[in-house]
Design a protein that fits this description.
The chain is an alpha/beta fold. The protein has one domain (3-143): Diaminopimelate Epimerase, Chain A, domain 1 (Roll). Helices cover 48% and strands 15% of the residues. It has a four-stranded mixed sheet with strand order 3-2-1-4, sandwiched between helices.
Length: 144
């Protein structure tokens, strides 16, 4: 399946529902960024997108970004310092392996939702919802 077909198979409404469910159980934020650009270093590009989206501005520094570059067949998952403090490097690698496995099976939406839910489990454990909590970042999938 080519990159255009892959992107068209991601069901935005299901992914958005997963993001909203995760964010309802925590004070954390999760975003998905899909780029059609060429990507050499997906982690560096993920951090650049993270900064561009101002994701470091959450009060508890507990945002995560799932960065997908279908044309380059690369992706990365990054979390801000507050979230990263509660996750071993192996956690991020495990998520990346899960996403890659789902993508290989052409289960794009399902794989993405499972990764979002796992991020959500960590967020819920370490960043429960706060009384004055509000959605600090937009939920929509960013495409460029």
């Amino acid at each position: 399946m080519n990159a255009e077909q892959m992107i068209s198979h991601i069901r935005d409404e299901a992914v958005l529902a997963a993001i909203r469910a995760v964010e309802s159980r925590s004070s954390g934020e999760v975003r998905v960024f899909i780029t059609n650009r060429g990507v050499d270093d997906p982690t560096a590009d993920a951090w650049a997108a993270f900064a561009k989206l101002k994701m470091q501005r959450t009060a508890q520094r507990n945002a995560a970004l799932v960065f997908i570059a279908p044309n380059a067949r690369k992706f990365a998952i990054v979390g801000d310092e507050g979230l990263h403090r509660h996750c071993a490097e192996g956690f991020w690698n495990q998520l990346a392996e899960q996403l890659a496995g789902g993508f290989r099976k052409e289960d794009y939406t399902g794989a993405l939702i499972r990764v979002i839910e796992q991020i959500g489990n960590v967020l819920a454990q370490h960043f429960p919802p706060q009384r004055d909590d509000h959605n600090e970042l937009p939920d929509e999938i960013v495409r460029e």
